[in-house]
Write a structure and sequence with these properties.
Elements: E1 2-3, E2 22-25, H1 30-36, E3 45-48, E4 53-54, E5 59-62, E6 69-70, E7 73-79, H2 88-91, E8 95-102, E9 105-106, H3 118-121, E10 127-128, E11 133-135, E12 145-150, E13 153-159, H4 167-177, E14 185-187, E15 196-197, E16 202-208, E17 221-227, H5 244-251, H6 254-265, H7 281-285, H8 290-297, H9 301-310, E18 317-318, E19 322-323, E20 330-341, H10 344-350, H11 356-363, E21 368-373, H12 385-393, E22 398-401, H13 408-414, E23 418-420, E24 432-437, E25 441-443, E26 446-448, E27 453-457, E28 460-464, H14 469-491, H15 504-516
Parallel strand pairs: 2-14, 4-10, 5-17, 20-21, 21-22, 22-23
Antiparallel strand pairs: 1-11, 2-3, 6-9, 6-15, 7-8, 7-14, 8-11, 12-13, 12-16, 16-17, 18-28, 19-23, 20-24, 20-27, 25-26, 27-28
Helix pairs in contact: 5-6, 9-14, 12-13
Length: about 525
Amino acid sequence: MTQQTDAADPRFSALPARPGKIIAVHLSYASRADQRGRRPADPSYFLKPSSSVAASGATVERPHGTELLAFEAEIALVVGRPARRVTVDGAWDHVAWVTAANDLGLYDLRANDKGSNVRSKGGDGFTPLGPGLIDARAVDPDELRVRAWVNGEPAQDDTTAGLIFALPQIVADLSQHFTLEEGDVILTGTPAGSTVIVPGDVVEIEVDAPTAPGAPTSGRLRTTVVEGQVPFDPALGSLPAVDDTQRAEAWGSAEAAAAVGGSRHGDGSDGDVSTRSSRSPEETARALSPELRAVLDVTPVAALSAQLRKRGLDNVTIDGVRPTHPEMKLIGVARTLRFVPNREDLFAAHGGGYNAQKRAFDAVEEGEVIVIEARGESGSGTLGDILALRARTRGAAGIVTDGGVRDMDAVAAIGLPVYSRGAHPAVLGRKHVPWDVDLTIACGGTTVQPGDVIVGDADGVIVLPRAMAEDVARAALAQEEEDAWIAEQVAAGHPVDGLFPMNAAWRAIYDARESTS
């Protein structure tokens, strides 16, 4: 039968009470061991705080600035009466209930604690349990099943027949070392199929006993991933960090980190992901006002260049790049991405999985322009059609790269303004290592900082420092109106001498026109 018990705290609504301790098994399924390439001779364990428990239907934060939050579908055992030095044959008598668990883990922090998993597995909401309890008396511990779905798609499916260490053995082994008390929870490990989840993903996990009378089930444990807003404080402790080892472990394998990671996050080859990062207040504040955007929309890049020169800024054009759509205006706020020259050992560490290139295209917000430092190296692509599609889907204003573009016809067909040095069929790794995002870069011979205003038209691309963008834009628009009037006079037959630029006499005529209009 299935039992549901409530506790005062809604986090523990699926349990008889708040657990005194939560013990988790590191590696227990043969399918997972085969995936990891190592099979333990004996079970090993770690502890999770009871504050990590969450109920079905709750959200879990992927902490701000992190990448590798992974789910793990598990069978959870709830201890019904104390167990100390019990035998394998008698161990199951001390288990009162069985339910579903999601042993969430943040691989960005896993190396920091060297196996204890305190921070990587102990976060608030990192142990969803429930929603229902299955009476342990009604099921055979060797015939339980655990399954998981991500966004409705099957992700994990295994039974306790696939365990390296049977459930009673785990209970008996733990009881050798300390007393298992009533209400304690044991997480019994996850089978193959655990992988990375991102904000917007919904994970469902169910434990059942399909061969038992009535086929009792825990029901589906549902958890939705959201993006955290508060960054870690570097003054307090070690910060999240990832490398290819952690990416491979989180995604399930090195191949999955490269292939699955790429297809879910967009790497110029295939796929997409339903995540959207939230803007910080600082990012929201730097967004262009509708009024400034309207002025820039009717102001040519050449006019902006002239006004910047008057203010002493000559090195503000991104040189050597041409547009896929000369007829389209590019206006937006810079979001930067840096590539460094390819070096095989560095590409091995930084080029695969969810690398800086993929993160940049997943993080770009509406109205932003991805500006890429490729050192003017056009001997490979720096993006392809899938990344361009990802940028358009997220509302990006356009892309500027001083490198090459793959799949140029397909990129152009997407309809997003893209400026580059031209087409090239080679993949990124021929010339570049994706290195970092959201930092000051050099693109086409000019410095670009995150938040700079980027404007492009058929003449090229210019960088407006954010602090002077409005003043420059309005002055350029005024100059355009003046130049249009001068053009009318030239068309009427007047010589350019004294008119362009205007001398005092012509200025007086122009000003008089302005005052009477």
